[in-house]
Amino acid sequence: MVTRFGLPKTIIIDNGPQFANRRFREFCANHGIQLRFSSVVYPQTNGLAEVTNRSILDGLKRRVSAARSAWTDELPSVLWSLRTTPKTATGESPYSLVFGTEAVLLPEVAIATLRTGSYDKEVSNEGLRAALDLLEE
Q: Does the reported pTM lie above 0.90?
């Protein structure tokens, strides 16, 4: 996670033993990462993490059969499918919530669709610059 996305500002954890050890706390303290604990009063936090973990494991079980060591090769595909699938609660995919648009899939790159055929890089860059100008300091 750190090598791909950089250091997080905050990590929300349960009081599990893998997060309660001294080495993990020292790592967070040395890198300026705040540790927040999910509250027993708000068990939905733990439940959402469990549902996400279960979805990842189910996807890996479907893609990896006999070769158990190949799960690391399949993990990016499983995560991509989870990120681009619309969720029932919001009706949007996590990808679209983060980036404001749906992901362009490989078949859309090979065969031009209305969305990919009308793409203009200059217009897109102007829109991105305008959005950056409107961000708060």
A: no
